[in-house]
UniProtKB/TrEMBL annotation:
Required cofactor names: Zn(2+)
Gene: rsgA
Residues that coordinate or bind GTP: 112-115, 167-175
Membrane spanning residue stretches: none
Biological role stated in the UniProt entry: One of several proteins that assist in the late maturation steps of the functional core of the 30S ribosomal subunit. Helps release RbfA from mature subunits. May play a role in the assembly of ribosomal proteins into the subunit. Circularly permuted GTPase that catalyzes slow GTP hydrolysis, GTPase activity is stimulated by the 30S ribosomal subunit.
Family: Belongs to the TRAFAC class YlqF/YawG GTPase family. RsgA subfamily.
Name listed for the protein in its UniProt record: Small ribosomal subunit biogenesis GTPase RsgA
Keywords: Cytoplasm, GTP-binding, Hydrolase, Metal-binding, Nucleotide-binding, Ribosome biogenesis, RNA-binding, rRNA-binding, Zinc
Length: 298
C-alpha cells in the first residue's frame, strides 16, 4: 500500500503522484456506495501493481474542499477577473472571495483584459483594485496583457502552495497558465457574446507543477451556488466587516437594520465599498430565503 496525492481526475480514473511518479488508478466500488467522491488534491492510500493499473483505497483527512472547482487541500486561489465592461462583475468576484473565505483559502485577485480598456475605465478598475487591497486582498494588474511584472508577482504568490486558478469561463485562466508555464498549451476559448456564457474549454481537473507550486486548471463556470452557511455568519467572511464590527453597539450585529452599526457608518463615510455592501445584502437575503430540499436526487 502506498500514500500519494491525486494529481488528475478524468473519466473515473485518478492519477496519483507518489515516489516521484504517477500511478493511474480507479476508485473501489465502496466509494460510490458511500457517496464519496475522490478529489484532485486529496492525500490517499492506494495499491498498484504497475503505474498503469491500481486501486484507490482510502481518502485521508482533508484540510478543505471546494465545489467549484472540485479540488481538496487548497491553500491559495488566484481569482482571475476579466475587467471589460461586458464581463466584469463585482458580484461574481465577491461570491468567489466569500466562498474562498468560507473554505479558509487565501485569495489573490488577478485582473485580465486590461489592455482592452479605455484609460477612463482602466482608472476606475485601478481605484477598485486599491479598495480591495485596502480590505487585505493582493490585487495583481497591469496596463498591458500578461506583463512580466504581473507574471512574476503571480509566480511569487504560487511558490510552495497548492492553488486553484478560478474565474468566469473566458476570463483568461488557461491563458494565464500558458504564460506562467510555456509549453502547457492548455485549451482556451472566448466568451460567447450571444448568451454571455462561456464555452467550457477545460475538460479535466488536474494539478500542474507551475512556478514551484501546484496549480489546478479546472472547468470554467459562470455562477456560484448559494453559500452553505447561516445568513447570520455571512458577515464573518467579509474581512472589512470583521474589523469594523468590534465598534458595533450590538454583539452579533449583521449590519442591516441595527442602530449604531459601525459598518453602516463606514459605508456612509465612503470607507466601505458600496458594491461590497450591496452584494453582502443580496447574499444575505439569498441565504436567508434558501429553501431546504429534502430527498434531493444527486
Amino acid at each position: 500500500m502506498k500514500i500519494g496525492q491525486i494529481r488528475q481526475s478524468l473519466s473515473g480514473f485518478y492519477d496519483i503522484y507518489a515516489d516521484g511518479q504517477l500511478y493511474r488508478t480507479r476508485a473501489r466500488g465502496n466509494f460510490r456506495k458511500r457517496k464519496i467522491t475522490p478529489l484532485v488534491g486529496d492525500q490517499v492510500e492506494f495499491e498498484s501493481t504497475t503505474p498503469q493499473e491500481g486501486y484507490l483505497l482510502k481518502i485521508l483527512d482533508r484540510e478543505n474542499e471546494l465545489v467549484r472547482p472540485p479540488v481538496a487541500n487548497v491553500d491559495l486561489a488566484i481569482v482571475v477577473t476579466a475587467t471589460t465592461e461586458q464581463e466584469f462583475s463585482t458580484n461574481l468576484l465577491d461570491r468567489q472571495l466569500v466562498a474562498l473565505e468560507v473554505a479558509g483559502v487565501h485569495s489573490v485577485i488577478y485582473m485580465t483584459k486590461t489592455d482592452l480598456l479605455s484609460d477612463e475605465i482602466y482608472a476606475e478598475r485601478q481605484k477598485l483594485a486599491a479598495a480591495y487591497e485596502k480590505i487585505g486582498y493582493q490585487v495583481i494588474m497591469g496596463r498591458h496583457a500578461f506583463e512580466a511584472d504581473t507574471l512574476t508577482a503571480v509566480k511569487q504568490a504560487l511558490a510552495g502552495h497548492v492553488a486553484v486558478v478560478m474565474g468566469q469561463t473566458g476570463a483568461g485562466k488557461s491563458t494565464l497558465l500558458n504564460h506562467l508555464q510555456p509549453g502547457l498549451d492548455l485549451a482556451t476559448g472566448e466568451i460567447s457574446q450571444a448568451l454571455n456564457r462561456g464555452k467550457h474549454t477545460t475538460r479535466k481537473v488536474s494539478l500542474i507543477e507551475v512556478a514551484d507550486g501546484l496549480v489546478a486548471d479546472t472547468p470554467g463556470f459562470s455562477s456560484y451556488e448559494v453559500f452553505d452557511i447561516p445568513a447570520t455568519d455571512l458577515t464573518h467572511y467579509f474581512p472589512e466587516f470583521v474589523r469594523l464590527s468590534v465598534d458595533c453597539k450590538y454583539r452579533g450585529c449583521v449590519h442591516i437594520n441595527e442602530p449604531h452599526c459601525a459598518v453602516k457608518e463606514a459605508l456612509a463615510a465612503g470607507e466601505v465599498l458600496a458594491s461590497r455592501y450591496d452584494n453582502y445584502l443580496q447574499f444575505y437575503e439569498t441565504i436567508k430565503n434558501k429553501k431546504v430540499i429534502y430527498n434531493k436526487k444527486k
